User: Fold these one by one.
Assistant:
Number 1:
Amino acid sequence: MISAPALGLFAGFAMVASFTPGPAVMLAVNNAMHFGWRRALWSSLGNISGLLMLSLLSALGINAVLQSSATAFTLLKTAGALYLIWLGVQQWRRAGAMRRAAAAAGSADWNAQAAEPAQVRPRVLYRRGLGVAMTNPKAIAFIAALFPQFLRAGHPALQQYALLTGTFMAMSLLALSSYAALAVLARRPLRRWFDTGWPQRAGAGVFCAFGLAMLRLHRN
């Protein structure tokens, strides 16, 4: 099996990668601002489920397909970019609706007033987190490049892959939950500012920026 020092080093790499802001972090922050920490946890669970699937795909050699086929890489890249831009547009529209609802009610509690029921259902949030993870071609490449460096020859590869995948998922869940908690704590002292809708619009802009940046990705 993987030695303890090697596993610790891998956990360090996984933690740095997980805490580096990206689309998954932005989605966790966005959901925490709108629906609270517990609801945001569902999108985080969707994201780490996506990591599990990406790990399986990487083990099956999908990364080699993406590296060798420009068409496959472009299709996945475009799908991911459009999905992130769609999330940004939806968040921008929702921010405006929340502001109007809060003003009409004379209350700052837009979190409970303006969200449509379908948007706060756990399965919807879970699917969004899963979608963000599964439409990122670089995530497969990252897993495919990092995992083999820690596999020990002569030992069962399946068990080692499972250990690395579980560690990566745990680090990811820790990072996303931490960002979501910070977003909830920051929202309370800045409630009036959040009521204007501009923090949500800024987040929407970041989603769109991530999407546009993904369109510029190239195969290594």
Number 2:
Amino acid sequence: MSLVIKDLHASIEETPILKGLNLEIPKGEIHAIMGPNGSGKSTLSKVISGHDDYEVTSGSVTLDGEEILEKDVDERSRDGIFLAFQYPAEVPGVSNANFIRAALQARLPKGEELDAVAYYKNLYSKMDVLEMDRKFTARAVNEGFSGGEKKRNEILQMMMLDPKYCILDETDSGLDIDALKIVAKGVNAMRSPERGFLIITHYQRLLDYIEPDHVHVMSDGQIVKSGDKSLALELEEHGYDFLKEGELTNA
């Protein structure tokens, strides 16, 4: 089973961003996308998750064989899509513990209640992996958090919701090396034959800690080259000037 993107075209305010993008992410694999600013990486993540600022003009996105483009954000989330944002939003007045608990409760069959003891046991075990202090359960979601704390909190939510496909949009942005290692630890703890990952990043350093099965280069709304981890090393060494010179093209 896979997340399959075929000939995807999408625009924002009538400006084309995605221009016939094709990508397949089978369960059990980690795919990384790299590319210069403005190439459409974040747009791709938002289109998959259902952000209403973007208009899909053609193409398809199927999750385990089912088309999701006509579904709203909540339906896609329930189907197993999770997006970790580059800039996680604050939710004043709502504690982390209650926020995650409500999200899990909403996924249960009508009339079924979340077991509080089991919930907190699971929550604390995930927080331990991410080296998060228990005090974060009572703090409002991301309010007053540092950049690293916000990113760890995103990964905590992802670990608790246990999605089928995880999309990480520049999760490494603004992280120091210690925070990067902790976030990577959380992601690696979720690697499973039943889960696929799409990791969007500018920098090869993240891929030192989360080793991808495939690396893709995106430019002008399309995947222009794919390879293994060595492709990320090539980009780190030579930069994206290869794109301008026409040397980095599909094999």
Number 3:
Amino acid sequence: MRSNAARAVSDGSAPWRYRPRSGRSSDAKMNRRLALKGIGGILTLPLLESGAVAAQSPPTRFLVVGNPLGMHPDHFFPTEFGKSFTLPETLRSLEWLRGRLTILSHTDHGMNNGHGREISFLNGVLPENSSAYPERNISVDQVMARRTYGRVRFPSVHAALENGIRMSWNANGVELKPVTDPHRLFDHLFLNLTAEQRKVRKQLIARNGSILDTVGEQLAGLQRRAGRRDRERLDQYATSIRELEASLAGRSEWIDRDKPKFDISRRFAGAETTIENRYDAIFDMIAHAFETDLTRVATVAFPNELGYTDIDGVTRGYHACTHNGKKEEVIAELVALESFQIAQLSRCLRKLDAVREPHADGTLLDRTIVLFGSGMGYGGTHSNRNLPILVAGGGFRHLGHVDTRSGSGFNMPLCNLYVTLLQRFGVERDRFNTSTGAFELRYG
């Protein structure tokens, strides 16, 4: 049965609102880290238990894993609500985590069915309708990433094996494309610049910084003379300038610091580069980036044209499997590849759960908000209703399987969940795009 709290939130009545506990904000000053001075720069190590590091609460991280084609509903949603439920076939690899996850039924963005709406997964807003919202169609991960400028080397990291899912969007409505080659992701995250490259990078940042100063002065003059609608456009542009300035300043600070070391070779040495070990490599790098505080926000995507034929029992492409005509043998292939996606997620969460957080109870998973889902409910019918959504980790008091419908039977806006996730990350928000409140998911 639905809880009264869930019903109140989805009804639009006054929801429970999260208030951060003292000393637990993600916006606190960057944690002091132990640094070893060496040839060519500084090697930054993970947070340690040693007294050499100030005892501070570890930061909160955010990981999104998504696909554009939804999930076969009969094999994703449990038949029972509450904490006592049987995990369906697709989610079976998460059995070890059942007390630390929340599966949400009957939540979506209220959009009509059809392809093309799935790009609204993380924002609830289509690009063509974004002008009606103060922050256009910025995605929830990028709202969080803005809070980490200057605290981490990379405000956010995006990875996949192909382009196409279109999950992450900045404040100007521009898609942030993922890195699609694990080796290039390794270079981006862990390969240090040479001395000459660092010199050139500093010169480029300094030159760009001076250009931004000039643009800022010109922009202020334009804003004073502009009409209302033009001021709105200029305000959006000013936001972009401020974010770029913050990004450039942050990059300058990190140039002379060496990146953490990470060995990716074991994922490929003597092994065929299958979809499994390529995604293993991606998830391992994301986990290490979280552990060493290279970033606190990451997205991993399973694109719609990705080939899964090296997975046992799968002979068709992902998109082809969704158009199965209700044929049992094709549905079985779809469930096999969707189970693979969840198994990859489960493996990553086990890795996060194996890392103890210094100066705090719990593990890295307890400080990582994990969101799995899609902007499409089920590709077989092109439905954009009842999106397959689950949240894990994050230190939440998880609810099991929740029916989020209102007492009147209306689906809950998915952006209500995003308000709660933003608050948990330390971003004080009452609304996010199409939200009508916050979803009740307490933590601590």
